[in-house]
Amino acid sequence: MAGLLAGHIAAVTGGGSGIGQGICQAYAREGARVVVLDVNLEGANETIGLIAAAGGKASAVALDVTDRAACKAAAADIAKGGNVSVLVNNAGINRRNPITGDPAAVAKDWDDILGINLDGVFNVTHAFLEQLRATRGRIVNIGSIQSFVHASWPNSAAYTTSKHGVLGFTRALAAELGKDGVRVNAIGPGLIETRINAAARANNPDMVAAVMRHTPLNRTGKPEDVAGPAVFLASDMSSYVTGCIIMADGGFRTL
Ligand code: NAP
Question: Of 39, 147, 186, 213, which residue is the least packed, with the fewest Cβ within 10 Å?
Answer without folding.
Answer: 213
